[in-house]
Amino acid sequence: MHLRTSLIALAAASGLALGVAAQAAGADPVKLTYWSGFTGGDKQAYLDLIKKFNDTHPDIQIDYQLQPWDSIAQKLPTAIASGAGPDLATPDYNVATIQQYVANGLALPLDDLVGQVGKGVLPQAVVDAFSVNGKLYAAPANFATLLLYYNKDLLQAAGIAAPPKTMQELQDDAVKLSNGQDKYGIALADNATIQMWPVLIWSDGGDLITNNCSDLADPKTVGTVEKWSGLIRDKKISPVGLTGQDADNLFAAGKAAFEINGPWAAGEYKAINFGVAPVPVGASDKPVTLASTVPTIVSAKTGHPKEAQEFLAWWLSKDTQAQLSTAAAYAPSRTDMANDASIASNPTVAAFAAQVPYARLYLPTEKDFAKIDTGIFIPAIQSAEQAGNAADALKAANDQLNKLLGCS
Amino acid sequence: MTLVTREGEPRRAARLRSGQLFLLPSAVIICVFVLYPIVQSFWMSLHDWSMFQAVHPFVGMANYAELLGDPRFWNALRNTAIFTVATVPVQVITGLLLAVVLSRASWWAVFLRSVYFFPVISSFATMAIVWRFLLSADVGPTASWLRAAGLVPIDFLHTTAWALPAIVLVSLWKNIGFTMVILVAALQDVPEYLNEAAVLDGANAFQRFVNVTVPSIRHALLFTSVIAVIASLQVFDQVYVMTRGGPLFHTETLVTYMYEQGFSEFRSGYAAAIAWVLFLLIMLVSLIQLRLFRYSDVD
């Protein structure tokens, strides 16, 4: 009897233990690996948000792995294809790159996410860039616009009261602020950078591609490039051949008075007294600036498509977007937050958010993006800057581009 | 007789097996990381191979035919050739002169040898970042020194005329120490009696250097120049970090072009074809070098 009770107790206890163990196993959180390239000034904002998600979602844990962009570009396609890749990833900061991922079946269509976020909530330009055949394949990890950064002390010393409102004023100010040696009016990067030249071209009504044909030989495009490259050569308003990092260093060192850049740069300029203003209006008389958004894709091989999209829905929620905006001055990736208190109350955030209606993505859906950008456009700009042959260089680039696009 | 074979055979077999076992680790590494990729890359170069795609259509020699008509390939080949011709002779000759001056055992020679060797042991990518900063016309110290001296600083890495020469100089700075150390070791092996005999024959210092020292270290000169040529033809790190092949492709080399085709345009097949052209080029140049040096072995 005694023995029997003990046995029953033992059986019950072990049964209980097994039950508890089973329960514990059932509550094991789903682990999602996320490869991200946000290593710049906005890094901490992302880390804080990931931590917040992990703290509030015991059932889903994000293993956030920061890597340089070029390292992601090298490894991600093969990693996904071989099944060893992450569940979530930012493939590249150039949005056109996702076209290749979609074309080769490496990215999952985000049908769940569309249902959770709702139609018409994401900016239309982003939806267009991230959709193939009507299906959304990526969620915006951020949404940024570019503003004109200016060094208040340099402008004041030169007797310039306010930042320029037109491109003509910007050019005049830039000439005035350059000394032909070590002080430059503007830090204008042409390679390995967030695009600055396309903004100048758009502002005068020119373009790179319209209706699948090159616009590089368009008189407006040629006029813009001739004007700016002429000032760079003759008046030394900017060094030639700058990368984005070079331009940032120059502005951060107080050696350039203007720079067109996104919100992520603000954190790197703490040592100087700077302000931000809308990109000046060019000959087209319409405000325009560059939009930049980084796509997050869900791997086609993920074992947890539902949880991955749940994370993305959380990322795009109003609260998360408000926190990202406040922490890193990004515009919210939603169209319904323009009057949100957290945006309106912060002047820097509000300034970037105010540009959303005028912001354009750079070559968002060109599947030959790398060939067009680094193989044709950048060399043409560099040739104009170095050799002063803007018209010829753009004509040659125009022919190359039309050949590539199949436009006769 | 049967007894002898029975005894002999297993013993020989056992020796063989342990010898093979010792070879196995490096043989496996070479097969997996060298031989297999070489064969695989040739196979890839015959296909329209993208790492995104599951299917890679066979295209035969089309990638190689495209190379022949690709102006960026010829430009990269020319830059690589200029780089090699500009670095290797300077590296070997300067390395030899430094080795001669510093081969003695005084404390300052040992100290200077360490100084010259120091760049060799540091990572080239890291050193290239440092040099990019040093040579920057805007934030670098070189420019401010030049300015302080009343000169106009040159924007080395952003100017078409200066970018390649700047990379050549940085590469020499990085690699001369290696050549020097190999040659110092070789010089210390030159038998003293040869020099003594030459002195007795009335040879002066220059004659002894040309007719005794240089022939005695010929094997080391061959080694350093072959290694220098191979490294120069494969130049990548410093270019990638300092100029990314710019400005305007003026520093684009075969390997940086191959990298761009492979990893930014994802044309692995085309990149593999470039790799094979480079492989054949290196083999050809190395064979010529070996032949040239062997020729002088006869005397």
| Oligomer classification | heterodimer
- How many domains of chain A? The number is 2
Shape of chain A: globular
> What would you say the CATH architecture of the largest domain in chain A is?
3-Layer(aba) Sandwich
Q: Report the structural category of chain B.
A: mainly alpha
Structural descriptors:
heterodimer, A: about 400 residues, alpha/beta, D-Maltodextrin-Binding Protein, domain 2, six-stranded mixed sheet, four-stranded mixed sheet, 17 helices, about 45% helix, about 15% strand, B: about 300 residues, mainly alpha, MetI-like fold, disordered N terminus
Could you describe the 3D structure shown?
The complex is a heterodimer of chains A (408) and B (299). With 408 residues, chain A is α/β, with parallel strands linked by helices. Chain A folds into two domains: 186 residues, Periplasmic binding protein-like II (D-Maltodextrin-Binding Protein, domain 2); 185 residues, Periplasmic binding protein-like II (D-Maltodextrin-Binding Protein, domain 2), CATH 3.40.190. Chain A has 17 helices and 14 strands. The longest helix of chain A is centred in the first third of the chain and has 25 residues. Chain B has 299 residues and is mostly helical. In chain B, helix 3 runs antiparallel to helix 10. Chain B is globular, with a radius of gyration of 25 Å. Chains A and B meet through helix 3, helix 4, helix 11 and helix 16 of A and loops of B.
